[in-house]
Amino acid sequence: MRLLIRYMQSRDKAQHEFDGNVITIGRGTDQTIQIADMSLPLLHSKITSSGRDLILTVSDGKSFAVNGQTAKKQSLIDGDVVEISGHKLKISAGENGFDYLIDVELDSEQITELKSRFPAGLKQIKAPRRQLTWALFLLLLGIGLVIPAVGLYVGMDKIRDIPLVPDDGVWLTGELHQTHAFMEDDCTLCHTEAFTQTKDEDCLACHQSVNHHFDTEIFGTDYEIGNDCADCHKEHSATDSITRTDQAGCTSCHSDMDKAGFDSELRPATDFLDDHPSFMLSMHEWEASEGWQNTRVALSTDGIQENSNLIFPHDVHMSEEGIDGMQGVEILSCSDCHEPEKGGMQMKAVTMEQHCSDCHQLTFDLDRPDRVVPHGSPPDLMRTLREYYAYQFLNGDNEAEAPKQAGGIASPSVREARRPGRVARPKVISDMIVNANADSSATMTEQANAYIDARVAQAASSLFEKQTCTICHEISKSGDSAVPWEVKPVKLNEDWMPLAEFSHGSHENMQCSGCHDAVNSTESSDVLMPDITSCRDCHGGEDSTNLLQSNCVTCHEFHLEDQRPMGALIETANRDSIQKLLDLDRSTDEMVKEE
User: What pTM was computed for the model?
Assistant: First the structure.
């Protein structure tokens, strides 16, 4: 039986719920319905339930009245009024899940009389009230004025060392965090209104560039937990961090995003070890019509591949036997190509010029293995080759004096393709050319143009189809006669998990192979990112005992880089305030004109 009991004399109409089969009524403090009347016994009567019926029974020698009729036992129904020594209990049908509602109306005269029988005060104990008042006044004066004044002269540190003597710790909330230490003692920088907690506007006055957690244009600014800056950032805190780090602040929404009121594809998470979805990767996909597109894919997806358009087998480069390099056989390690950025959060980009060119020299002329072309787009490469051979022709290239075939065109030499030679200091031909186009425009003959065209065609064919570009790039024929080859664009994934933070610096004592199985990777399309089970070998949840305790903020930031700054709230508030002032001025002017 569920009942709702209400006391009608209470200022706030105090009420409490009862769930049971027996309600006791009496003066005792342990009674379900207490009536503080000295004329009543500790236990006066009981209300018991029989199915949905209520039965009121009284103890020996006592009685009550129901609807004006005296009784010692009575069934109660909706609308009955029970009177006990002037106090009334009205029985009503319940609602909102309650079987009955009992309104208790106490006789105020009886209750007041009872209180007057037990007076308690200084007068009753014959205490010297005036003397106590002065003593209390002097005590407060000493605590609030004398002791702080003494501390100004002798130093508050000495006051703090005296046992049982109150010091400034009575009113100081604590030292500022080191990030705010530059504010020193100017409390008004944060507390712009006296005796009030710091407001969001006070924080954002300095932290205007701090970004939102999600798209406020779509979801608004209701964060549930974290709606105010002070919900997650506590100044004058005893902890070392000014930022709240417990995972409850995150899981209040992320345990069930549907209840949070957001239409999101994010999956629920409450604990890294026990309840966290598999990792999501940001993958690049090339679309000829739209360029590079970014998609989010679960790492657990079967057949997942990286489509960077680069041909690169890790197992060949990581072979224990080594690979051919400029100075002979070289044994590579991960750090030869993958170098952490300062701070260790991300890896520096891998580039052809810095990491590949020592072994993969872009030679193009078999007679000049010390000459290389710059790494670039096919149109730039063709233009550079033409400028180079024009430069050679104008500067007395020996090949130009070679025996001519019929038609007067130099016969280019033809050799089998071979690996680029090991040259200590290869020369990029674009660095050698000086105004070749300007000179050739005035001096190029038909014979010279034919010679240059033949040499460019031979060199470009070797580059794109035989020994250089095709080693690492996917190349196809194009319909352009000037540049008959097309190289698929390459884009390496530099941030697989942009919504997570991972520091290589804090994992520098681990072997790369512990997380990335590059040694056994035969295709550049292999995704070598570790899954969540790999991380759980060392990391547990917030309450783990035998693993590293890791909460949400260990790997995730609250303020996201791709969201707009929270400081825009101040600008909006200022605009609204200015608009209200303008509207007030207009209304005032109109009133003056009317008068």
Answer: 0.60
